[in-house]
Structures are given as structure tokens and as C-alpha cells.
Please model this.
Amino acid sequence: MKGIPPATVQRLPIYLRCLSDYAGQTISSENLAQLARVNSAKVRKDLSFLGSYGTRGVGYDVDHLVYQISRELGLTKDWAVCIVGMGNLGSALARYRGFPDRGFAIMGLFDSDPRKVGKKVGSREIESLARFKRVVKDRDLSIGVITTPAGSAQEVADRMVAAGITSILNFAPAVLKVPDGIDVRRVDLSTELQICSFYLARSVADRAG
Amino acid sequence: MKGIPPATVQRLPIYLRCLSDYAGQTISSENLAQLARVNSAKVRKDLSFLGSYGTRGVGYDVDHLVYQISRELGLTKDWAVCIVGMGNLGSALARYRGFPDRGFAIMGLFDSDPRKVGKKVGSREIESLARFKRVVKDRDLSIGVITTPAGSAQEVADRMVAAGITSILNFAPAVLKVPDGIDVRRVDLSTELQICSFYLARSVADRAG
Model:
């Protein structure tokens, strides 16, 4: 199970997203490949790492596949997540339905601005960063999401590491230095726009040519 | 140039993000592979589609590579982008520095709520959806970003298609029906959290075992 290649891990959430519209159905590797925009041999190879091979002429049972991918991604247990930096993006993520739907429970919202502390976002109050370490311990928070401006991101990451968080998702446009053993993922919200751009540039060239 | 596989296209923005911290330097395919979490043979293959082969023992010239990837992704011209749905997420995207940095000019912000129309987000005023079609034409908007609640997303997509937009980035948790020839990409903000979860589940299992 530990031998799943990182590139396959990166695709599993994409398969999961594509499959969400096909609950209760079966799906062929070709169809899933088209939805996920990879080739079907790769889909079959990826899913074989989960011990899933589908049925010839029928395809994969979607509900079972969703269960297998979810289990592999560790989504069958809930993870407690905190968000630090309650500007627009932090607030949007705090309210984002896709998180609880995927097993991510938002259990802490933090900001260093005393004017924000005590205000509610959804059903949860924003707390002061001064309480961060204690809250992480008390609520057993596992994943820290950084949505501060770039200039504060390193300080927040240091605080997360000191509090015992080992998995950090960074939306701030900053490179973070963390000790070995801490998993930092940087999210670039313009990634998908760049893919739009690729296809758009080609269709404009086609029309022109 | 049109023969670049979709899977490679998906990785180009990731390379670009990784390279942004190495301006003016050279980078080996191994190093870039590690940063992008793919294997180095794949990196070399992907970059060969751009006609970029690196220098043995030296690696790739980062600035040149950034230029080549940007050109390939159509990022060397600015695209005019509009955002429809000015809640927290729309507002966050409207202010997101990563968009103009990558050549995406936010040229229109729209909401159907008359209480939001006329308010400023950053330096731009929110406009009424009633003006949408005219604005798309006047400002030559190419890409539409949907950040409405799920229930309004289809209606907004229909409006975008009617206005002549052919590339849609959908942040709403909804499946959109669009005519052939319209490129819709759905962004799931929980994708990266799911990858966090994968590695976290394994490290928890390691510590327990």
C-alpha cells in the first residue's frame, strides 16, 4: 500500500471528483480517463494500485471505487483542520462545503487581528493566535491551512510546527522553510487558469488560422 | 506544438510554480522532479515537448524554461478575466496577486445582488449581471470564473456562453452543462487537502506501528 507513486496520489483526488457525479453507476476506464483528462491505460494502472481492476465490458463499480480511493487517501476518518488568516480567502475556505464533504472538519479559525477575534464565520468564532498552541493540543488539530498575506506566512508556519502540526497547506504566495518531516503543500490558485489559457490560446490560433 | 498530451499540460503550471523560486539559476531535472513530485524521466519528457533539453551536468536555464513554459501556456499575452459571484471566494480571487502575476487581468466583477453592485473590491467596482453581455464584448473578456453558490452556477454559465465566453473556470460545487466547444474546468479546493490526508494517514500509521 505504501508503494503508490506520488503522481498516482496526485490523481486520486481528481478521480474522486470525477466519480462524484456517477454514484450508484458503473464507469469504464475510458470514460473516467476522459473526465480526468488522462489516458485510460494510466487510469487502469493507477486503480490497480488500489487493488481495483474493474470488470471487462462493464467497468468499475463507482461506489466501491469511491470507497477504495477514499480509504487510500485516508478520507474515511475525519481530520481536524485549522485555518490561520481570516481574510476573504480564509473565510471562503471556512465556509467551503467541499471540506466537510471530504472528511475535513474545520475545528479552528485564527487571526492575529484583535478586531477579527470573536467574530463568527459560519458557526465558528475566530480565535486569537495567542491561543493557538493550546487549541491545537486540546482539539487534536492535524492539518494547518495558511491563508495569511505572504509576509506573515513563515511566522505562522513556525507556530504550526511548534504546536505539533505536521501537515501544512499554504495558500500564501511564499516559500516556507520547515524542518524535515513536515509536509508542506503550496496551492497556486492560478494553476487551473493557466490550463484554461493553454486551450484558449490554441482555439484562438485555430480560428485565426 | 498541438501534440502536447493533456497530462503534460496539467503539469506545466506546476513546473512554473516550482521554478518561480529559482529565477536566474539553473536547475537539474532531478531537482525539478523532486519539487514537482514527479519522476525525473517524466520531467525530461514533458520539457522535451517544449523543445527544451537542458545541458548535461548543468541542467536547465530557469529563466529560459519559464519563458518556454509561459509561451506554451499562452501566458505571454494577457487574458481578460471576469469573476461572477462576489462572496468571500470571488473577493479573494479578485485580490489574488497570483492572477496578474501570471498574465490574467481581472477586468470585470459581477454579482446579482444589488447591495453588492457599486462596491469596490481592490480597485474595481462590482457591476450588475444585467450589464454582463455588453461588458464582455466591450472589454473583450475571454475567461469567466464562477464563484457563485452551486444553485446559481448553471444560470451564470449559460449567460457566459451566450455572451461569447468559451473558457469557464468553475469554483461552484456544481456540474455544468455547456455546448460543445466550451472549455469548462471545475476547481475542487479540497484536492490538495486530500493529498495532505494521504501522507498524514501514512505517517500516523508509521508512528503507531
User: Anything to note?
Assistant: The beta strands of chain A are 26-27, 60-61, 79-84, 104-111, 120-121, 124-128, 143-146, 167-170, 183-186. Chain A touches chain B through 67 residues (CB under 8 Å).
